[in-house]
Write a structure and sequence with these properties.
- Chain A: It is a multi-pass membrane protein.
- Chain A: InterPro entries: NADH_Q_OxRdtase_chainM/4, NADH_UbQ_OxRdtase, ND/Mrp_TM.
- Chain A: Its main location: membrane.
- Chain A: This is NAD(P)H-quinone oxidoreductase subunit D4.
- Chain A: Belongs to the complex I subunit 4 family.
- The structure holds two protein chains of two kinds.
- Chain A is about 70% helix and about 5% strand.
- Chain A has 21 helices and two strands.
- In chain A, a hairpin with a 4-residue loop joins strand 1 and strand 2.
- The longest helix of chain A is centred in the middle third of the chain and has 32 residues.
- Chain B is an all-alpha fold.
- Chain B has one domain.
- Chain B has a two-stranded antiparallel sheet.
- In chain B, a hairpin with a 2-residue loop joins strand 1 and strand 2.
- In chain B, helix 9 packs across helix 13.
- The two termini of chain B are about 30 Å apart.
- The chains are: A mainly alpha, B mainly alpha.
- Chains A and B meet through loops of A and helix 13 of B.
Chain lengths: ~500, ~375
């Protein structure tokens, strides 16, 4: 069943790409949409059949592959990967649906999007380090091409920069994985059998540093982030949606799965550094966002800031903070996808993303009133306004991390305040006031321009009001992650701080 | 047509002065402008008809009804109509009241003076006594606060006066549309001439207001006062609604502390000739209410023109209606200016020409911040 999540989009990619007759761009899109919808629906079926109380990998599939080097085709899903799988399915559908109807080389484009989706699903499902690495590398190629071919004016520069950074990430990751397996004396790359505890702490720290750098590029964390704003600015809207919504999550997922999961002792040693790194990312991302005049670049820097929260929560490694990191991944996936979609509509209709040029787009007749209203909702969610999923995620991050890293948590909370600052600047300049003369005669906004954003906005509100519908899939698994001895010890320390005199805080105990 | 002996001046709007002096119009003459103006005035005429009937109904049938829940129903109340009202499938009579309040507030003309006279107070007092003759509570309240009900009667007098004014204007605009349909109107000067003729013909129509209470008629504004259509309703209306208006919320945020609102009402410039059509569409603001009403009665030819003209098709209909409406209001103002000229526009007497020019300069000074320049290109 899990293989279908990878195979169906690949089959779709092959059909769209190699269809013997010429197909209109809209037909290519419709075929791609069908092959993207099937895995999405399948992931929902999986979620329905998933047993949240079982913290082991479920629906496992194992096929021996190249046993000589210890590589096996081993898939599984748990509470950490399930929400991200569903998110990947949803955002792939949205990205395809919101692609331009008359896009050039449409068959190639949709094939690449489907391959990208398959590779991301594969990475989330992989239970073998080498298999994860393969999927992690495979997704680089379609993404590179999607930016390089369908991007903006500086697409070549942005795509190459992206490739150099993420290929470096791949090399570091492979080196760390190989080191981990060889030094621990494991016979295969199977995730379940790896045990790093026998390794000297210094070795563990070195390995973890490799993993941190690898995923730090992918997330990205400051100062490894410079590829992201360029990639976002040059990528087309649907690709930005996928990039911010799903692909960055491979980094944070990898940190939790392989950093915290495989090297908990080293994680404990480096955790204070990670927390400081998170704060730097949060504050740097927010500060840079304030200075931007390009809406898309502002949202991109906002992403860098918000991904820092996940690192903070992961560094704290309390049951609540690990759960919060998963929630923040989903929350950021939905919110950043919404913001990029809306910026995309603004750009498509006005031909500009310049905050200093655009004005008054909330004009009810000649502006983009619904897009503007959704943007207000999106930025409120991003700034952590209660009632939306962003609030729940950030609240849990701070609540879970504060007992372990109080100073860092408070500094990160400043980042939330700064989010409100730059997004209010954006809203005030772009959407309020009298419509700018440059954009007085905008083309009509159609249902298909609005529909994907409406879907995301609804989800943001629903999960904001009912976060338990999201958290119930992950809480047992994230709690189990914190049961790793070293992490559990940290959690217990957290629970004995003067602020929290209760048992380790979990989401359900907060309710 | 007229030889101009005294060449205009350095006035920034000298072009428009020359245009009027030479028999042309403020709005450029083009077939599209004619279609725009006549089409919008047709729908405006239909809307004014509804407004007029409702204003007169309120003044006569809701006299001193202090909680007039059903004042917009013109006496025809049913559950179905109530549902339609709540669903907002209706005419926005609030716009008519907005105009009435603007007139009441800015005053001007004989009606305003009369409503402050002792005679009005006596007549209003008699009507109040009759209305509440079986209501000692209200009569007691009237004794305690004698200005309260009197002021309500003043407001109702304005309801009636505006209703009578719009009755004439509605018929005039519908007649214009019919003449256009017959092919008699082909140019903007003809449109202006039609309106001017209408205003002149109705100039001396008496403006009166009476209510029937318990079988007896009470004249609040009797004919003997001598109030007439042009001087006592048309001119104050143009002044209050076209020029001054009120700095309503919703379109632009005016900051009184920053002196964006002049302390002197006479210097207000928020009227229809100054309104920015772009913010139209915001919920509840007066221009939106009127454009929304006219939208229901757009002639097909105008609707098609809007769809052809705009990239947004139906999405910005109300802004387009407002742009057309503003053009038409410049035509009405143009007609009013011609009707009020001190001397005939084609006079050849230099002294009269000079007086006419001074009169026009005065108008142009007021147009300086209006949308006159914008309607030249729109």
């Amino acid at each position: 069943m899990l293989s279908a999540l990878i195979l169906v989009p690949l089959i779709g990619a092959a059909i769209v790409g190699f269809f013997p007759k010429a197909i209109a761009p809209t037909s290519s899109r419709n075929i791609a949409l069908i092959f993207a919808s099937l895995p999405f629906l399948l992931s929902i079926v999986l979620a329905a059949q998933f047993n949240p109380t079982n913290v082991t990998q479920q629906f496992s599939e194992f096929i021996p592959w190249i046993t000589a080097i210890g590589l096996n085709y081993h898939l599984g899903v748990d509470g950490l990967s399930l929400p991200l799988l569903v998110l990947n399915g949803l955002l792939t559908c949205i990205a395809i649906y919101s692609s331009d109807e008359d896009i050039q080389r449409s068959r190639f484009y949709y094939s690449l999007v489907l391959i990208l989706s398959a590779a991301v699903s594969g990475a989330f499902l992989a239970q073998d380090l080498l298999l994860f690495f393969l999927f992690y590398e495979i997704e680089l190629i379609p993404l590179y091409l999607l930016i390089a071919i369908w991007g903006g004016q500086r697409r070549g520069y942005a795509a190459t920069k992206f490739l150099i950074y993420t290929a470096t990430s791949g090399i570091l990751l492979l080196a760390s994985f190989l080191g981990l397996v060889w030094l621990s004396g494991a016979s295969s790359f199977a995730l379940a059998t790896l045990d790093s505890n026998a390794l000297p702490l210094a070795t563990q720290i070195v390995l973890l540093c490799g993993i941190l750098l690898a995923f730090g590029i992918k997330i990205p964390l400051v100062p490894l982030h410079t590829w992201l704003p360029d990639a976002h600015v040059e990528a087309s809207t649907p690709i930005s949606v996928l990039l911010a919504g799903v692909l960055l999550k491979l980094g944070t997922y990898g940190l939790l799965r392989f950093g915290l999961g495989l090297l908990p002792q080293a994680w404990e040693v480096l955790a204070p550094v990670l927390a400081i790194w998170a704060v730097v990312s949060v504050l740097y991302g927010a500060s840079c966002a304030i200075a931007q005049t390009d809406m898309k670049k502002m949202v991109a820097y906002s992403s860098i800031g918000h991904m820092g929260y996940i690192l903070l929560a992961a560094a704290a490694a309390t049951p609540l903070s690990i759960l919060a990191s998963v929630l923040q991944m989903v929350s950021h996936g939905l919110i950043s996808a919404l913001l990029f979609l809306l910026v995309g509509v603004v750009y498509k209709k006005t031909g500009s993303r310049d905050i200093e040029t655009l004005r008054g787009l909330l004009n009810p007749e000649r502006g983009l009133p619904l897009i503007g209203s959704l943007m207000v909702l999106g930025v409120m969610a991003s700034a952590g306004i209660p009632g939306m999923v962003g609030f729940m995620a950030e609240f849990l991050v701070f609540r879970g991390s504060f007992p372990v890293f109080p100073t860092e948590t408070i500094l990160s909370m400043v980042g939330t305040g700064l989010t409100a600052v730059y997004f209010l600047l954006l809203i005030n300049r772009v959407f309020f006031g009298r419509l700018s003369p440059q954009v007085i005669d905008l083309p009509r906004v159609y249902f298909r321009d609005r529909a994907p954003a409406v879907v995301l906005a609804v989800l943001i509100v629903i999960f904001g009001l009912q976060p338990n519908w999201l958290i119930r899939w992950s809480e047992p698994a994230t709690t189990a992650m914190s049961a790793i001895p070293v992490v559990a010890q940290r959690s217990q320390l957290a629970s004995h701080t003067p602020i929290l005199k209760s048992n380790p805080v979990t989401f359900n105990s907060l309710q | 047509m007229v030889s101009i002996t005294n060449k205009p001046l350095n006035h920034p709007f000298a072009t428009y002065i020359t245009r009027i002096e030479t028999g042309k119009t403020l709005l450029p003459d083009s077939s599209e402008n004619v279609l725009d103006v006549v089409g919008i005035l047709k729908s405006y005429g239909i809307v004014l008809d509804a407004y007029s009937k409702n204003l007169i109904y309120i003044s006569e049938n809701q006299f001193l009804v202090l909680f007039p829940f059903f004042k917009y129903f013109n006496g025809d109340i049913s559950f179905q109509k109530l549902l339609r009202h709540w669903w907002h499938d209706r005419i926005n009579f609030e716009y008519a009241e907005y105009c009435m309040k603007a007139m009441l507030w800015h005053g001007g003309g004989g009606l305003d003076s009369y409503l402050d006279s002792a005679e009005f107070k006596t007549r209003a007092a008699a009507a109040i006594q009759a209305k509440f003759k079986n209501n000692p509570f209200m009569l007691g309240l009237n004794q305690l606060f004698p200005d309260f009900l009197t002021e309500q009667v003043r407001v109702l007098s304005y309801y009636s006066a505006l209703g009578q004014f719009w009755r004439v204007m509605s018929d005039m605009f519908i007649a214009l549309s019919e003449r256009y349909d017959k092919g008699e109107i082909k140019t903007i000067p003809q449109v202006v001439e039609h309106i001017k003729a209408g205003l002149v013909n109705a100039a001396a129509l008496p403006i009166t207001y009476s209510v029937e209470l318990h079988g007896k008629v009470y004249d609040i504004v009797p004919k003997s006062i001598g109030l007439t259509f042009l001087a006592d309703t048309a001119i104050p209306y143009v002044e209050a609604v076209f020029f001054r208006g009120t700095p309503f919320q919703g379109t632009v945020s005016y900051n009184a502390q920053a002196h964006q609102i002049p302390p002197d009402q006479a210097r207000f410039a928020y009227g229809a000739l100054y309104a920015d059509p772009l913010p139209v569409g915001g919920a509840g603001i007066p221009p939106t209410l009127l454009m929304q009403d006219m939208r229901h009665f757009l002639p097909d030819y105008l609707h098609k023109l809007y769809q052809k003209r705009s990239r947004r098709e139906e999405d910005d209909l109300r802004v387009q209606i407002c742009i057309s409406f503003q053009k038409s209001m410049f035509c009405v103002t143009n007609a009013a200016i011609l009707g009020l000229m001190p001397y005939p526009i084609d006079t050849t007497v230099p002294e009269e020409q000079a007086v006419n020019r001074a009169f026009l300069v005065n108008w142009m000074d007021r147009f300086m911040t209006s949308r006159l320049q914008d309607v030249q290109v729109a």
